[in-house]
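Sharing a chain and its predicted structure for anyone who wants a worked example. Both blocks are below, sequence first, tokens second.
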Amino acid sequence: QASGCQAGTAPAPPAMALDLAPPAMCFETEALAAQRRPLAGWFSFVQADEDGYYCVKEYGVFHWLFAVLLVIMAVLAAATAVFVALIFMRRRLKRCFSRGSEAAARDIKQAAARSGNDADPATSITAVVPCYLPNEQDIIEETISWIMHKVESPGKLEVLVVYNTPRDLPAIEARLQELAAREDWPNQRRLRVLRCLESKSKAANLNAALKLVDDPYVVIYDADH
């Protein structure tokens, strides 16, 4: 006996459509992706994904930390280069800035020579060179030689090296005494050397030196001039 119900088949569910569209910010070509990078690409990059699309991605925290580290290293390297250059150029810069005073001294000397007052005590000058030997023992002799041979003076010039040191330095101290004993310096110039036993500063060295100066004019040179 046929039942009043008629057997039927349930409708099949619709097939799921395959989405072939690329995800947001992903493009079919690398050139197109590069064109869509914001801010001219300063803060993003292009990377291919598993489906063959080229996606625009932003830099992460580690990228920025690495960039900041590179900037800091570059700044430090530039500062170091400038500092080293200034150390090597300091002497030449001093000479450039002192050319004006040297020219004036040369004019005075020439005028004194014309008037026959080259040895006039009124034009005598003492050049005081305070130094701290442990730091400046490698350059003090060069400084003395430069002053003795290069500095123009309107009259008699005497160089007074006054130094302090926390410990004995036999080699350089003996060398300074040898230089002080020389009598063949240009223009009959004279070198005196004084060690300040109680001194612990440049100011103390200068005060001790000024007590020994009789000339009307005094100039002060750094030991690394």
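Comments welcome. The mean pLDDT is 80.
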